[in-house]
Specification:
alpha/beta, Spore Coat Polysaccharide Biosynthesis Protein SpsA, Chain A, seven-stranded mixed β-sheet
């Protein structure tokens, strides 16, 4: 497989060096594309330095902060133009353990979409409070029921997509961001007949830097799932 790790960043100077080195150690055959949204903290300069030192690390610099979904769409398009056939989504803040990528890529040999899941046996969120855990699980269950996903963790951001899956999804037209982006990608993959499998991961909150998630992103996902679910009932596919 020609694997491209797409790594969106905004103000990740505290994490980028360690993450890139970890990825290079764990999946040495993969190439890395950092999609940086004009981070004012010097993240892009750090990537350039890492590229000179380690090689096979590319930087896609964007003019302004444009959101997670937009960053992944740009990264996928960049990689497809260059012939990559598998694409990794992973957070730069180590909430996703790079070591788990070995298993995700193994599963990607026989599946179109591999999701690192917190909510199947073996998955966990070690330090979340009970209310936060319940909110996340209920949100995922709501999305699965409304959209017929058959997926326990449709908001997960640790994934591998095949180029075929991206074609089926028509990723360039996916409009949501944050959690909504992950759900919409899952929904389109399922409706397009892509094979989807979940693999258990442990999700840990970042310890360095600031979270980019907000209440607005959660609300966007809820509104979109409800809209898509209603559309699915009113206009079912033949």
């Amino acid at each position: 497989m020609r694997v491209l790790v797409v790594l969106p960043t905004y103000n990740e100077i505290l994490n980028i060096d360690a993450m890139v080195r970890a990825l290079r150690d764990i999946v040495p055959a993969a190439d890395i594309l950092v999609v940086d949204d004009a981070s004012p903290d010097g993240t892009a300069d750090a990537v350039r330095s890492l590229s000179s030192e380690l090689g096979r690390i590319e930087l896609l610099s964007r003019a302004a902060k444009s959101g997670l979904g937009s960053a992944y769409r740009a990264g996928f398009a960049w990689g497809l133009e260059r012939g990559y056939d598998h694409f990794v989504e992973i957070d730069c803040d180590f909430s996703h353990d790079p070591a788990a990528l070995v298993r995700l890529l193994e599963l990607a040999e026989t599946h179109d979409v591999v999701i690192g899941s917190r909510y199947i046996p073996g998955g966990s969120i070690p330090k979340w409070s009970l209310p936060r855990r319940l909110l996340s699980r209920l949100g995922n269950q709501y999305a699965s029921i409304m959209l017929g996903l058959g997926v326990a963790d449709s908001t997960a951001g640790y994934r591998v997509y095949s180029s075929r899956a991206l074609e089926v999804i028509d990723f360039a037209t996916v409009g949501a961001d944050g959690y909504g982006f992950q759900i919409e990608m899952t929904y389109r993959a399922r409706r397009g007949g892509a094979s989807i499998i979940e693999s258990p991961i442990a999700f840990r909150d970042r310890t360095r830097g600031e979270s980019k998630m907000s209440g607005a992103i959660v609300l966007e996902a809820l509104v979109l799932v409800t809209r898509w679910g209603v559309e699915r009932l009113v206009r079912p596919r033949n």
